[in-house]
Amino acid sequence: MKFIRIYLSLTKFKIAFLSTFSGLLGYYIKFKNFYDLFFIFISLYFLASGSLSLNQYIERDFDKLMERTKNRPIVKGDISPFFAFLISIFLITSGLTLIFLKFGVFAFILGFITFFIYIFIYTPLKKKTPYAFLPGSIIGALPPLIGWVSAGGNPFSPTILSLSFYFLLWQIPHFMLLFYIMSDDYKKAGFRTIKDIFDERKISIILYNLISAALLFTLSFPLFSVVHSKTYFIFSLFTAIYLLLIFSYIKNLKNFKKVFQLINYYTLFLIITIMILR
Question: What is the pTM of this model?
Answer without folding.
Answer: 0.92
